[in-house]
Amino acid sequence: MSDPIDTDSLSHDELRALVEQLLGQVSALSQTVIEQREEIARLKGLKGRPDIKPPSQPSGMEKANRPKAPAGLPRQGGGPKTAQRAIDEDRILEIPGLPPGSIFKGYQDYLVQELVFRKHVVRYRRERWLTPDGRELVAEMPAGVRGHFGADLRRFVLCQHHQGQVTSPRLLTQLLAIGIEISKRQLMRLLIADHAPFIEEARDVLRAGLLHASWVGVDDTGARHKGRNAVCTQIGNDSFAWFGTTYSKSRVNFLECLRAGFTDYVVNDEALAYMREQNMPAPLVARLASGGERSFADAEAWSAHLRRLGISEPKTNPDPTRVATEGALLGAILAHGFLAVAVVLSDDAGQFNVLYHALCWVHAERLVHKLDAFNQAHRAAQQAVRGQIWDLYRDLIAYKSAPSSDAKAELDARFDAIFQQRTGFATLDKLLKRLCANKAELLVVLDRPEIPLHTNATENTIRDYVTKRKVSGGTRSDSGRDCRDAFLSLLKTCKKQGIAFWDYLGARLKIPDAIDVPSLPELVKARCAPA
């Protein structure tokens, strides 16, 4: 231990030098303490400090891949200036006690936007006539009037519940406070009864997307239905979104979702090819190929066919019943023209690995980022590989804007150089080998530059369902589940198309003077069609 320094004997310059030296030592010691705390937290399994990048560094999100508002639609947010607003009412404000001889100079306009929000009861007095032949005629109700609650009230209820995320108990309290005479059962009927047209339009949105899109992003999340754990699958791109809640997370379930409401099973060449790729025993594939009937109306007819051919009896790995069912579902999807050329973009969940499949680069790099490194050499190797991956990623973004055969060959070679290298960090090398096996799915963009390199948009879309689940919990009936899925699908599709959900509901509920909104499936078809 060194002797204490006599600061009284030091000059001003020597004191300044000493202070600077001590500040440097304090800074170094603080950094050491931080690193030791992070290492202790990591060893204990705790979370360390978040790795927040400064604004100047790229976040990995690709701005070029974010959906753009379609041309020709009204601007969302900001809106027109006050001079362009339609005036519904003029109110004259007078100045009391004017001095004699004052000269009137006109008006100074001041626009205030107001909301008229009150109960409004309409009594329709329907004419009744008795014809000479004894028939009684009663005047028809106006379009959009169904039941004892008007179309505007139904629009408000649907918009508040599905877009505003207002729970049904709170919505009931709100309506009663306004003065609406309505019961809990009546409110639930407004939310889930007689909405077949909306459910059909959501289904047709999915069909239009699967028929015409060049790519679709897929993801799923947990759900609750009838008191049981379930799963919600989301399918969409920058033109549409569709949600479907089921009890299974299997590939069979995903393929059933891709049938978009159809129930058939088809054994065609594509189905048989899939069965062979999945290593289904050749004699069983031959039975299906020569079984005569190739198309089956529903699951019952398909199961009977498998039993008749003896395919459901063998207990082998892979399960022949499952593989045959997946193949027949895939055959039905392609028979309907769905996903004939589209790329399926996912986060590498196994159930989504069908047809022309592409993987998310952000999820791939995340595996490297989350890898545990136990010494400085391993950490250096990890950071070097991450830098190489993000450099390649940025060049792939540039390639999307200007693809060429030379650039394609160079990027392909760089991929091999990165993922076939040996760093000396055994765990990292094993991971790189695993990622290298996914080369075809990670480099789909070289042949299809129009697809995104990540699933960020898909994950953002499905967050709305997660929020709905946290706010409202699960669904208790099949009609409630179908309405939740359908209205969320329509809400997100309207947003992607630049349409106000309020206007969409007004058009579909036939509210007088509502803005006309074209068929969403037709809009999806127009957006997805190649230029």
Order of helices and strands: HEEHHHHEEEHEHHEHHEEHHHHHHHHH
Ends distance: 79 Å
In round numbers, the mean pLDDT is 88
Helix content: 40-55%
Number of helices: 19
Work out the number of β strands: 9
Instruction: Provide the spatial order of strands within the biggest beta sheet.
Output: 5-4-3-8-9
Structural class: alpha/beta
Q: Which regions contain 5 or more consecutive residues with pLDDT less than 50?
A: 52-65
Oligomeric organization of the protein chains:
single chain
Into which percentage range does the β-strand content fall?
Answer: 5-15%
Gyration radius (Cα, Å) is 32 Å
Principal-axis shape equals flat
What does the main sheet amount to? 5 strands, mixed
3D structure, described in words:
The chain is α/β, with parallel strands linked by helices and 531 residues long. Among the domains are: 128-199 and 486-528, no CATH class; 212-356 and 457-463, no CATH class; 361-454, no CATH class. Helices cover 48% and strands 8% of the residues. It has 19 helices and nine strands. The protein has helices spanning 12-43, 151-163, 168-178, 184-192, 196-212, 251-258, 269-277, 282-289, 299-309, 320-335, 361-369, 376-401, 405-419, 426-436, 439-442, 456-472, 478-497, 501-508, 520-528, and strands spanning 128-130, 136-138, 215-225, 228-236, 241-246, 265-266, 295-296, 343-346, 356-359. The strands form three sheets. It has a five-stranded mixed beta sheet with strand order 5-4-3-8-9, sandwiched between helices. A two-stranded antiparallel ribbon has the order 1-2. It has a two-stranded antiparallel ribbon with strand order 6-7. Strand 1 (128-130) and strand 2 form a beta hairpin. Helix 5 (196-212) runs parallel beside helix 19 (520-528) and helix 12 (376-401) packs antiparallel against helix 13. The radius of gyration is 32 Å and the shape is flat. The termini are far apart. Mean pLDDT is 88; it is low at 52-65.
